[in-house]
Each structure stands twice: as structure tokens, then as C-alpha cells.
Amino acid sequence: MLNQKTKHFLVDVLGIDLDSVSHRERWLSMLGGFISISLIIYINLRVVHDWGVALIVASMGASAVLLFAVPHGKLSQPWPVAGGHLLSALIGVACYRWIPHLPSAAGLAVGLSIGAMHYLRCIHPPGGATALSFVIGSPSLHALGYQYLMEPVLINVVIILGVAVVFNLPFVTRRYPQGLQHLLARDRHHGGSLLDANEIQRADVVRAIEQMDIVVDINDDDLVELFHLAKAHAKQRHLSPDHIVLGHYFTNGGEHWSVRRIVDESADHQQVIYRVVAGNEKTSTGINSRDEFARWARFEVERQGSDWRRVETTTRN
Description:
Layout: H1 4-13, H2 23-47, H3 51-54, H4 58-69, H5 78-98, H6 102-119, H7 126-135, H8 139-142, H9 150-168, H10 178-184, H11 202-212, H12 220-236, E1 249-251, E2 258-265, E3 271-279, E4 285-289, H13 290-296, E5 299-304, E6 307-311
Antiparallel strand pairs: 1-2, 1-5, 2-3, 3-4, 5-6
Helix pairs in contact: 2-4, 2-9, 4-7, 4-9, 5-6, 5-7, 5-9, 6-7
């Protein structure tokens, strides 16, 4: 297990995502990328008949990562994929034709593509590569002019989207596009039944994202469901009264954490007396009903040198 300082360095400093994606998901992502790019190369070499032009599929490699590793991400959906590539291709051709200074043309092609994708709500990072590839491409690529949008860009977009739909369809949690997954997954939460009316709703999530002024690569409905599931897991962290044992240590975690030790209990075992041994209000004492103390406690801990280590608990009879 990693301690908090190590986790902070890995996640917050280096940006390493400590997710728990299954091995099956990882292998499916690899297989989807292999099939899509192999098919794109195969068709390009027979339709385009020019290896220099066919090399434009490089930007599709980046798209494959998004479509098969994170198929439910906002940046992976059909409109961002199609709009991002085609719009950026148009801008790339225009910048090459109208701006004679190559560095400026290349920079503007990418910069304008980012701006256009923002305003047309089709942000797809590989689109920047599609624009740049034309500007710095081969003479045979430049000879295509605006035909570049149709051949090979549109051909590649149709292929990779088609493979993403067909490949992910058999897997309930991977169905693509996201709307299809929502429609066909029977075990999915739906609409207003996801949360109570007085709790967080989709509109609240949308307003919060607008207030933060950031791009979040996850659907708003999924964010609401994520909150719902996280809240359910948080409730499970609280201990039951049966876990509150004389002589043991417990903590509430969080910003105002403390560690309490059960030092005594009433004759009927319904009340417990505790002493705060670490954290907020250290050395103080108090008395609670066993139920109240269980609602306060998140988990049991034990000393490990100068630190505290979480103790995995099981239901007590």
C-alpha cells in the first residue's frame, strides 16, 4: 500500500492515474487499436495509392487511443472525432495555401484548429495533428488541396468510427457511442431516478463545470452517476456499532480528523467513553452512545511507529 505522501507525488505532481481498470479492459483497448489501424492502413494503400499520402493515418493512431481506451470520454464521441479531424483538415489546407511562412502556417493551423474545435464543441486532440500533417507534409499530399478532407481524412474517420461501434458493441460497459451504451445497458441508472430531487442533479453538475471553466472529458450524466456511486461507497465507510470494541482506536478521517480510543463502556454496552489520542482536540474525553460513535467513525486504526495504519474490519457477530 502507498502512503499519502507517495500518492500525492504520483497523482498530483507526476499526474499518474492510479485507476483500477481491469486487465480485460486494457487488452480490449489494445485489440481495438490494432484492428482499427490495421484496417485503415490496408484500405488507404488501396484507395490512396500513395504511401506519402497514406502516412496521414498517423493522427488516427491518437484517435484510436481515445476511442478504444476511453470510449465514453467526451473527446471520443462521433462528433468530436469527425468534426475535429475534418475541420482541422480544412484549416490546415487553408493555412498552407495562404500563409507562405512555414512556421507561421504550422502554428496557425494548430492554433486555429483548437479555437474552431472549442467553438464548434468538437474538441479532439488528434485533429491538431491532422491540420499540422498537411502543412508540413509531402508534395504529393499538398497536391491534393481540399481533396485532402475527403481522401484520406473522411475515409479514415468513417473506418475508425465504424470499427469503434462494431468492436465495442458486444461489451455492455464499452458500447460506443456513449448514447448507445446508455440506451442498451439495462442495468444503468436512468434520468431522475438516479438521485433524490433534493440532491445533486445533472444541471448542478453542468453549472459547476461552467463555473470552473474547464473541459472535463466525461459525460455530465456519468459525472452525476459517479457522484452517486462515490456517495454510496462513502456511506459504507462508516462502521457498524458491532465494530466499536473496548480498547480499540478509531478515526473520522477528513480535514478535522482525530483518533479516539475506547477506554470504557456502560454496563449495558449502549454507551462508550473515549479519549482523543491524536489529531483535533487531542487529550480530551467524551461519551457517546455506541450508535453515535459508529456514525462518527470511518474506520479502525492502529499505531505503526509515529503514524496510524488503517485496520481492515469485518462484520462482528
